[in-house]
Amino acid sequence: MPIPFIDLQAQRRRLGQPLEDAILKVVRSGAWVMGPEIAELEKKLAAFGRAPHVLSCGNGTEALMLPLMAYGIGPGDAVFCPSFTFAATAEVMPLVGATPVFVDIDPETYNLDPASLQAAIELVKREARLTPRAIIAVDLFGQPADYPALRRIADKHGLKLIADSAQGFGCTLNGEHPLNWADVATTSFFPSKPLGAYGDAGAVFSKDARFHDLLISLRVHGQGVPSDAESQAFSHDPKYLNLRIGMNARMDTLQAAVLLQKLTIFEDEIAARNRVADRYAQGLSDLVTTPKVIDGGVSIWAQYTIETDDRDGLAAHLKTQEIPSAVYYPIPIHRQAVYAAYPTAPDGLPVTDAKADRVISLPMHPYLTEDDQDAVIGAIRSFVKRNG
Ligand SMILES: *Cc1c(COP(=O)(O)O)cnc(C)c1O
């Protein structure tokens, strides 16, 4: 049996009959859109993430786009984000007409470098062509960004701080979730994320009731919500009062039912992921660069990413051993042709560019057996020793 990169079938077997019963219950109920599981999931996610408000939505991309819409960010506005991330982080800016400004990363954590961010904001202010509005930090590979530093910079320049925690829902810094510092945090429940559905799904975590109401409205075509005076005066279903330009960004009830089951074991899975990560570090840190988590941080290990000089050689070697690996990300977003015209931090993104040639992610999931992990470690050790 080849070693899987992520073993979602082992998790499915663990969840067993209750998971299948929960899915069938939704099928039989007929409440396929906005069924009762949606509100139940939002409540449980709020408790898990210690968030005052949670809005479920269709995927992690919508989860990022909805807050930009709620803040009225659009043409002429600048939003600062890393380039060493999944495309969705940067894509939502052009989708609302705004401009992404790419910022470099810290060489050890791969997350936003506060110094590069500060320089990028000052450059945009000096040029006075765009209005700085927000920062999107990414909790890359599952570990929290440097939120205390990012919050200070956001406050200094009057910017909103958005946490793209698509890979990091459940991570903490000094015992706190990213929302402790960020104005809003988002996540994705794409199947391969640490907390994954059986299809696309996402969520937005926020602190302010009026802002959450705005998200509810935007999620369903700008419908009237109780905090709108117009809605209070309207005598029909506020669904048919369209007060703003919104979209359809609902999560399917089926996905909520799956996530409710998975949430019951998520804490345990995070602990298992940390055991796997510790074991990788023990087996590999003398030969390759193993991940470093920010001081006070707890990663949920969406990916276990190492660095080595001959990354492509290692990937090819692992393939011959039937060991899967992946490169996140081979082309930083600012190097993609369609994003090349957007601004970057004044000194460019040298760390981002260097990392793209060095990183490789290894099999990582809560059900990785010690035998399989030893096979991965052994294959890497033999390759590096032979070539080093
Ligand atoms: C996966 C991901 C997203 C997008 O989530 P989808 O559910 O696929 O839309 C956004 N940001 C980051 C960092 C991601 O890894």
Biggest pleated sheet: 7 strands, mixed
Distance between the termini: 30 Å
Contiguous helical run count: 12
Radius of gyration: 21 Å
The whole-number mean of residue pLDDT values reads: 97
Q: Tell me, briefly, the overall form.
A: globular
Q: What structural category do the secondary elements indicate? A: alpha/beta
| Count of beta strands | 11
Q: Which cofactor or ligand species appear?
A: pyridoxal-5'-phosphate
Helix content: 40-55%
Biggest sheet: strand arrangement:
1-8-7-5-4-2-3
Low-confidence stretches: none
Summarize the helix and strand pattern as letters. Answer: HHEHEHEHEHEEEEHHHEEHHEH
| β-strand amount | 5-15%
Structural features:
alpha/beta; two-stranded antiparallel sheet
Question: What would your notes on this structure say?
Answer:
There is one protein chain. This protein is α/β, with parallel strands linked by helices. It contains twelve helices and eleven strands. Strands 1-8-7-5-4-2-3 form a seven-stranded mixed beta sheet, with helices on both faces. It has a two-stranded antiparallel ribbon with strand order 6-9. A two-stranded antiparallel ribbon has the order 10-11. α1 runs antiparallel to α9 (253-284) and α3 (60-70) crosses α7 (209-219). It is globular and about 75 Å long. The chain starts with 7 loop residues before the first helix and ends with a helix. The mean pLDDT is 97. The structure holds pyridoxal-5'-phosphate (PLP). Pyridoxal-5'-phosphate is lined by residues 59-61, 85-86, 88-89, 138, 164, 166-167, 188, 190, 200, 202.
